[in-house]
Design goal:
This protein has a domain of 193 residues: Rossmann fold. 35% of the residues lie in helices and 18% in strands. Strands 3-2-1-4-5-6-10 form a 7-stranded parallel β-sheet, sandwiched between helices. Strands 7, 9, 11 and 13 form a 4-stranded mixed β-sheet that branches. It has a two-stranded parallel ribbon with strand order 8-12. The longest helix has 20 residues.
Amino acid sequence: MSKQGTEISRPFVLGATGRIGWALRYRWGAEAALWQTRRRQPGAQWRLCDPLGQPGVLVSAAQAAGQILCLAGSVPGRGGDLQDNIRLAKAAVQAGAAAGVRVVLVSSAAVYGAGRGPLTEETPLTPANPYGLAKTEMETGACTLATELGVEVAVLRIGNIAGFDAILGGWRPGFRLDRFTDGRTPRRSYIGVLTLADVIAAVLAAPALPRVLNIAQPGLIEMGALLQAAGRDFATVPAPQSAIAEVALDLSRLSGFLAPWMSLPGADPARMVAEMALLDPHMKEASRP
């Protein structure tokens, strides 16, 4: 069960040692899923395997669990190969085909690039950076493969995650934000780390899923307001012409989908900071040797 009471249809989680994986384990409890890792971890719910080199282990774990949640992939600034996003998603789809289970893939709002909102799931994808391009190629390649193999696939395009983002999560002394001519700092669709876990729980509990879902909380958050809520000092500089003032996800499909399970709370910087504060000690503990 999630801490909000949503019944989770047991998933096999690829990329479970990443930041979202730690948030899910904290919110759901370790017994709620099978968790993939490349290094041994304490606990009976872990499955040790290389997703690209041990497809048989993926299949057996997926069969034992009942569905696959693919968090695995590379993110900017961590030295990984962004093409792993594509390879790992395809490996998940192939395992889903062999196991006869559906696959839920985590993507990113970065696929929309500088598109003007509100951005619906049907908005043409115009990625503006290598990460967005890799996620776009991941979606296209994995969904094409899923159609060929007859696998049910759903894609979650997640907005900024407060605490895992480049602003709150990447804050350092001397941090600077762009300031636009209206006096505001960049505005984005955000979601709190624990609210994200609740939303993913509801997605996995559903008997049928849309092919694509935007994932965020209603309302835009100004990045400066998020840092202020966390008590983080920052300076502002005039925004260059290339800066994107606003990325707004249309959440009408998500709100309708979630209605039987949960009411999606509006975006609130203070609440998002509080969610990260609850999770942060557990992530620090997990990262110790």
